[in-house]
């Protein structure tokens, strides 16, 4: 969840920087509006989209990391006993670090959802308050518009199809211009833009770029409405600009409303007098596509990773016959402390495997001074040993019997195991996890590599 939230914040922040650098001063107000809305939606959708593996930079990074691990493994084979000793030391430290990291994540998520709850409640309270004012104050019906009379020195604003205005404050000409301005807001459904911006604030309350995003969206809506209004023949630019100055008020409406007067009055006046952008500059908008593709290639999961993992691509290093433990052969063992170190040899004596250690407690009734049988069970099957121990040393024959149920489980994972491979898994994979058995079955653990 945390990576998704941060990825969304990154997309939104980058898009805002893109907008301020290239598009903010353009007079393509409708295109800017579409850009701002589209980026809000993309920021929340793009992180969950899986892309083709060929487009993903993450795939290349993963391959390099895997190759480095394989090189280090091949250069430092060691024996299993040494590796187990290191594992015994490292695991507790990793566990403590993991616990601390999990606690930190839990606190971060708690603080995040607490903020979401606070800002979500604020959003609902604003909407409820506006609806209460809309239906509790005196109203004049003007077609599909509802003109709600308010009192006090508050700036005119609109929400949905409601126009909030104090008619006693303005002369007739200014009053009509205010109404026409707010009607344009309603006809263009600018309330939807502001609601989307508020939702973004709710889930990105920690991101200063999200707050700035809402401000830029509000500014562009005012520029757009001013431009639309000045297209009427009956509206003179000088008269309208004078009306803006008359309407200036120290009290501002709620953030969910589109309002006639904002603190951006100076910017609106400058934008009305700015030179119209040339269509030749519209190419800037197309740079958004490669920007989003870059984000997707860097951070999105490739399609192959979103599906059930099949180790078939890993099995490209097919085990060689001379490195496989046969299902039958001879064994030699030495007891050292609480462990038994086994050495396995095939009948043809072509291969030997040293350093396969097992806990002495895993065996019961070891045959001492006389020949007998003892077994060791694993998920992959049962290893039956026949022979005897003289003191701390023993020798005899072994036979591996695979477990059919385990074979079915591995087949579901897309791996078809030979009996020799199951024997390898039996000896070198002792953790009862599909991931571990997959790795051993695919030949990633070779005898003598630890």
Describe the protein:
By secondary structure, the protein is of the alpha+beta class. Helix content is 51%, strand content 15%. It contains 14 helices and 11 strands. It has helices at residues 2-23, 29-45, 57-75, 80-136, 172-187, 190-203, 208-229, 237-247, 265-273, 288-299, 303-306, 404-412, 419-428, 434-441, and strands spanning 139-142, 145-149, 157-159, 162-165, 258-259, 328-336, 339-345, 352-359, 372-378, 381-390, 393-402. The strands form 2 sheets. A 6-stranded antiparallel beta sheet has the order 8-7-6-11-10-9. Strand 9 and strand 10 form a beta hairpin. The longest helix has 57 residues, at 80-136. The chain is elongated. The relative contact order is 0.11.
Describe the structure using short key phrases.
alpha+beta; six-stranded antiparallel beta sheet; five-stranded mixed beta sheet
Topology:
Blueprint lengths: L1 H22 L5 H17 L11 H19 L4 H57 L2 E4 L2 E5 L7 E3 L2 E4 L6 H16 L2 H14 L4 H22 L7 H11 L10 E2 L5 H9 L14 H12 L3 H4 L21 E9 L2 E7 L6 E8 L12 E7 L2 E10 L2 E10 L1 H9 L6 H10 L5 H8 L9
Helix pairs in contact: 1-2, 1-7, 1-10, 2-7, 4-6, 5-7, 5-8, 6-7
